[in-house]
């Protein structure tokens, strides 16, 4: 099992013409060691979960680590939370999730209620663990003041070479509190960001030096951190390229070159999310 990589399913299951290739790609990833699969009720309004359910129904469930997420507006009552979870379980054709995340926090989010309900669902066997997504340090500090808030297993956040704000305080805070991090959009969260990064002379130089693609360099950069990087691959060719990264490394000089162009934050940066 490649524990540093997870399969992402955002935008999957929404276009019938792409379905065959999406199924083949996810199957290839699972069969080649990526057993962590990330989805959400938001993705395609359940279509991603349903497609994933069809893919995994004939696989050994115990070999997989399934993650889904709940909309904050579906987390105002225990009944809403349970309804969302049970719909996700039905879509995924499974009796439990390995990890269930609150997708983001809103001003009216009742964290006491969310934690209490997640803990109940965990005791009832529907969840192995629960966590959050898009939580900044101040959000985590608020969470940790709640009874059982420290049982939060994971925080899933945006992170890539061009967006390094979490290095200033969130990554150290997570380490101090034994909180697992998952990184999404590790290949850039917009075409503008991706183009800026992959066309950077520093990234091109590193790519050439190690006979890698710029995307492999970007993924390797996130893998240097303690956490799990989520990748969404649109083809078997692409997923092969990304899996190969787990056998590669960036050296000290590479990281220094990256730091010169895509600088570490020197002060607090507001948490970005998509």
UniProtKB/TrEMBL annotation:
Substrate binds at residue 103. InterPro entries: AKR, NAD(P)_OxRdtase_dom_sf, NADP_OxRdtase_dom. The record marks 69 as: Lowers pKa of active site Tyr. It comes from the Bacteria. One of its GO terms (molecular function) is oxidoreductase activity. It holds the Pfam family Aldo_ket_red. Residues 4-261 form the NADP-dependent oxidoreductase domain. The active site is at residue 43. This is Aldo/keto reductase family protein. It comes from Alteracholeplasma palmae (strain ATCC 49389 / J233) (Acholeplasma palmae).
């Amino acid at each position: 099992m490649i524990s540093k990589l997870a399969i992402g399913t955002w935008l999957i299951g929404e276009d019938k013409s792409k379905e065959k290739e999406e199924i083949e790609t996810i199957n290839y990833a699972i069969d080649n060691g990526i057993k962590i699969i990330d989805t959400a009720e938001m993705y395609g309004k359940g279509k991603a979960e349903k497609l994933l359910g069809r893919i995994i129904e004939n696989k050994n469930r115990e070999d997989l680590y399934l993650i889904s997420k709940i909309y904050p507006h579906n987390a105002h009552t225990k009944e809403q939370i349970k309804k969302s979870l049970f719909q996700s379980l039905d879509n995924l054709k499974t009796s439990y999730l390995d990890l269930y995340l609150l997708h983001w926090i809103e001003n009216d989010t009742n964290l006491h209620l969310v934690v209490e309900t997640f803990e109940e669902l965990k005791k009832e066997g529907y969840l192995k663990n629960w966590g959050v997504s898009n939580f900044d340090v101040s959000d985590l500090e608020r969470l940790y003041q709640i009874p059982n808030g420290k049982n939060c297993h994971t925080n899933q956040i945006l992170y890539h070479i061009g967006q390094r704000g979490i290095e200033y305080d969130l990554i150290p805070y997570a380490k101090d509190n034994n909180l697992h991090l998952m990184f999404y959009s590790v290949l850039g969260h917009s075409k503008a960001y991706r183009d800026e990064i992959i066309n950077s002379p520093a990234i091109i130089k590193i790519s050439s030096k190690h006979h890698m693609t710029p995307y492999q360099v970007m993924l390797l950069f996130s893998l240097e951190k303690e956490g799990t990087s989520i990748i969404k691959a649109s083809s078997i060719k692409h997923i092969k390229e990304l899996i190969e990264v787990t056998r590669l490394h960036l050296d000290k000089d590479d990281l220094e070159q990256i730091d010169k162009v895509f600088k570490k934050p020197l002060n607090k940066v507001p948490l970005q999310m998509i």
